[in-house]
Amino acid sequence: MTQIDPTKVATTITALKRKPVVSSACIGCGACVAISGDVFEINEDGYSIVKDLPDYEGKDVDDSISACPVNAIRWTK
Ligand code: SF4
């Protein structure tokens, strides 16, 4: 029988609960929205905000982080 490694389970659960955040450095270029429109949207002030989702994995957030010209996006827990 395969043993489940509790450390790996905890790491996986933590990864699933992380959420992207956008800092005040955002200049509203829209790159993150173009890449991951199901996660990011431009608010009425013209800056990116993160939509409230149950989970953000598999939604190209890392690509948006890489594309942001001012490094305004990061993962948080
Ligand atoms: S890519 Fe960066 S600067 Fe552009 S809208 Fe998104 S968070 Fe703002």
What is the element layout, followed by pairings?
Layout: H1 6-17, E1 19-22, H2 31-35, E2 40-42, E3 48-50, H3 61-67, E4 73-76
Antiparallel strand pairs: 1-4, 2-3
This protein binds iron/sulfur cluster (SF4).
Describe this protein's structure.
The protein is an alpha+beta fold. It has one domain (6-76): Alpha-Beta Plaits (2-Layer Sandwich), CATH 3.30.70. It has three helices and four strands; from the N terminus they run H-E-H-E-E-H-E. The strands form two sheets. A two-stranded antiparallel sheet has the order 1-4. The chain has a two-stranded antiparallel ribbon with strand order 2-3. A hairpin with a 5-residue loop joins strand 2 (40-42) and strand 3 (48-50). The chain binds iron/sulfur cluster. Iron/sulfur cluster (SF4) is lined by residues 22, 26-32, 48, 67-70, 72-73.
Uncertain residue ranges: none
Mass-distribution shape = elongated
- Give the mean pLDDT: 91
CATH class category: Alpha Beta
What CATH calls the topology is Alpha-Beta Plaits
Cofactors, ions, other ligands: iron/sulfur cluster
As a percent range, the share of strand residues is: 15-25%
CATH architecture call: 2-Layer Sandwich
Strand arrangement, major sheet: 1-4
